Amino acid sequence: MRNRTTLAAATAAGMLSLMFTAGSATAASAAGNTAAPGAQADATSCGEVRLTGELPAPPAGMAVQQQVTIGEDCRPVLGEVTFVPARAGAAAKTKAAAAPAGVAAAETAAGTTRQFKSWNEMFDCCNIRMTGLYTASQWTTDGSRITTASTEATQQWNREPWNAGWNLKSATQNTDCAENCDVSRTEAHADFTYKGIFDVTGSWYANTHHSYVDLNADGTATCRFDVQLRHSFIGWNWQRGCQ
Q: What whole-number distance in Å separates Cα of residue 194 and Cα of residue 196?
């Protein structure tokens, strides 16, 4: 996460960044243009890819999102970073714990309670979601300290007929501080494997998602993301965001 080349994407709301690990801007690998067993004959494999990016919390009632697509030359193509009304973001398609739109706030006797969501998804060239990792956070702050904090991570993956498709191999989650915190940091990870129509061996595809959420005592939050693909294809796209 630390040795990265920064490529900036400007929006009317300010400057945000997408960062690639060194060497991953060129997505082609030794796999060359070899399709997976059973894959479409005209599909082009771009080999192993790793992408990483960071987004700030959007204003209340808004979502911030970006799409990164594997382009014709197997290089990632950055989509525009956009702020959209929360209901137009990805919240409706996640099964993470329900939370109001935006970084919502509610006053309680213990302080101000806020809620925050993130999504980290891979789609194929037909815009079918293959794998996804989601977080839903809630924390209460008195303005200088976080009194309580919790983050739940959930996963989703695409299945095919006859008990085939993507599977969740493993998932982990760790929150470093849940009470009396300056910052509450959560790391969520999910490993997915595939065995189905496009690879009957189960050895070709594997997607690994990493999501990082930082909740701050001043009521702000940030989300960072990382995805690793054992093999990828032109047209695959990474969709990520938070609200």
A: 6
Torsion angle in degrees (nearest 10) through CA of 125, 13, 86, 5 = 40
Could you say which DSSP state residue 182 is in? S
Q: Would you call 3 helix, strand, or coil by DSSP?
A: coil
Give the β-pairing of 62-70 and 76-78: antiparallel
- Distance (Å, whole) CA 211 – CA 52: 10
User: In this structure, is the dihedral angle defined by the CA atoms of residues 240, 155, 184 and 147, taken in order, positive or negative?
Assistant: positive
Measure the CA–CA gap between 36 and 155, rounded to whole angstroms: 25
Name residues whose C-beta falls within 8 Å of residue 79's C-beta, 6 or more positions apart in sequence.
Answer: 9, 66, 67, 68, 69
- Measured CA to CA in angstroms, residue 19 lies from 6, 16, 129, 242 at distances of 5, 10, 23, 17
Check whether 103 has a pLDDT greater than 60: no
pLDDT interval class at 109 (50, 70, 90): low
Whose CA is closest to 218, among 53, 57, 55, 16?
57
List the single range of 38-42, 85-89, 204-208 with lowest mean pLDDT. 38-42
Secondary structure (DSSP) of 11-28? ETTEEEEEEEETTTTS--
**Of 74, 69, 79, the residue nearest 31 (C-alpha):** 74
In angstroms, the Cα distances linking 219 to 62, 76, 117 are: 16, 33, 14
Q: Shortest CA distance to 128 belongs to which of 76, 27, 196, 82?
A: 196
φ and ψ at residue 22, rounded to 5 degrees? -55, 130
At CA 201, angle to CA 198 and CA 204, rounded to 5? 65
**Nearest alpha-carbon partner for 25 in 80, 60, 68, 84:** 68
